[in-house]
Amino acid sequence: MQFYDINSNKVDLPKGEKIHWRISSYAICKSSDDKILMVKCCFDDRWQLPGGGVEPDETIFEGVSREFYEETGYKMKDQGQEPFLVNQGYFFDNAVSKKFYHSVNFFYLVELTSDKQDKDAINRGVELEGEIVDVKWFPLSEINKENCHPMDFKAIKKL
Fold it and tell me: Which element (helix H / strand E) includes 61?
């Protein structure tokens, strides 16, 4: 298994280092004019889908709903409780925890419950203060390998 850091650089697992499990969920919210709601984090120049780690006391879908609101300021609903895509990855979190993770990732197709954005909700409850630096409706035709996180780009390509 090969680990990658937030900048997609290969990172070797040091001998004896523990690997942590992480269940993550992400939202793909597509507008009627083919734009995807994406976020930009303070530790990465690429755009990402809103989402992240699921807490032990919440369902996977509850996790994506919470993360979506904390990162975008919008409330959402699902387009079916089944995930659109499930995949796994290995990463080294060099931005926050400094831990190695084996991550199982759930991607859900969602829609907004309202066009009203609560800008005060952005970054409330996130792990890293000031984590989200921008929220944008990104034209689907402009999302590519250079400007989108690789894990999210694979999910968006499946649309």
Answer: helix 60-72
Are 47 and 39 in contact by the 8 Å Cβ rule? The answer is yes
What is the C-alpha to C-alpha distance for residues 32 and 53, in angstroms, rounded to an integer? 28
Tokens read off for 43: 């530790």
How many domains does the chain contain in total? 1
| 22, 106 contact by CB (below 8 A) | no
Contact 48, 138 (CB under 8 A): no
Q: What is the pLDDT of residues 133-154, one digit of tens each?
A: 999 999 999 999 999 999 999 9
Domain that holds residue 50: 3-157
Distance CA 29, CA 98 (A): 30
How far is CA 5 from each of CA 13, 55, 124, 150, rounded to the nearest angstrom? 11, 22, 25, 12
Could you tell me the CATH number of the domain that includes residue 64? 3.90.79.10
What are the tens digits of pLDDT across the range 55-67?
999 999 999 999 9
Half-sphere exposure of 127 (CA within 13 A, CB side): 13
